[in-house]
Design goal:
Length: 269
């Protein structure tokens, strides 16, 4: 990521588990075309491309939410003004972390991984995370999803052909630690997934959910919204019918991007 430090409003996209910054390329082009300075953040250990990360999977192993959030916070420092953050899945959790620390002007969390304080454990979410949580040794490992696992967790709401194409293009190894941290958050008062939900002076936050998402079902996003009830800062939610966890990379991504653009413009960005 290389911010240009121009006068344009900066937007930084943050990927989640099993995807690379490259997964935001269409969004970056879209928002640049609408006058924003748009770039994608990296996670520690990410290769320059999806394929490079696949070839060096061990480089991403072992990192947890705190280390990843702090790494991205460092990437934000060169900007001359606070950026807008848009994150997907664990990237959605990360942008909430950074917004709560007043490091962003606004944030959009798309199908965000549950922050501490979200107690629900839907079966589909447990099944989606089982490829990692099913083996305690994955805590310190990089884990890859098989095509059927990616189909269940990401691409259940698209055609079989599109699911195969998305897996081949985007799927890559991810650190197992963040999922273990999310799974144990309820029992850990100092969980890495804790977010400053009571920050009254932070910028606006939009939570987005896909109605058919197996990995982060809408109930988890609605529960996240409830956690912000004590803050007077703007927190809003939008659900997209018929959409799964791949909603930022599949053929329907443009609908979401348009909604995000309209929302940001309505908030004065």
């Amino acid at each position: 990521m290389s911010p240009n430090t121009t006068s344009k409003t900066p937007i930084v996209f943050v990927h989640g588990l099993w995807l690379h910054a490259e997964s935001w390329n269409s969004w970056i082009e879209f928002f640049r075309a609408h006058g924003y300075e748009a770039v994608a953040a990296n996670w520690p250990g990410d290769g320059k491309t999806t394929e490079a990360t696949r070839q060096n999977a061990n480089a991403v192993a072992g990192y947890g939410v705190t280390e990843i959030a702090d790494y991205i916070a460092g990437e934000l420092k060169p900007f001359t003004k606070k950026p807008i953050l848009i994150g997907h899945s664990f990237g959605g959790l990360l942008v909430q972390n950074l917004l709560g620390r007043d490091l962003a002007a606004a944030a959009i969390a798309i199908d965000p991984a549950p922050i501490k304080g979200v107690p629900e454990l839907p079966f589909s979410a447990l099944k989606s995370s089982f490829p990692v949580l099913g083996n305690p040794f994955n805590l310190k490992r990089a884990v890859s999803l098989t095509e059927p696992q990616f189909r269940f967790g990401f691409t259940n709401a698209v055609s079989e052909q599109e699911a195969k194409e998305l897996y081949a293009k985007y799927a890559m190894p991810a650190p197992g630690r963040p999922l273990f941290q999310a799974a144990t958050a309820t029992f850990n008062p100092n969980s890495a997934t804790k977010v400053n939900v009571e920050n009254a002076t932070r910028g606006p936050l939009l939570l987005i959910s896909g109605a058919e998402d197996h990995t982060v079902p809408p109930v988890l996003v609605k529960s996240t919204l409830k956690n912000y009830s004590k803050s007077p800062a703007v927190t809003e939610i939008k659900e997209f019918a018929g959409r799964g966890h791949s909603l930022t990379i599949d053929s329907g991504w443009h609908e979401l991007a348009e909604y995000c653009l309209t929302w940001l413009q309505a908030k004065g960005f």
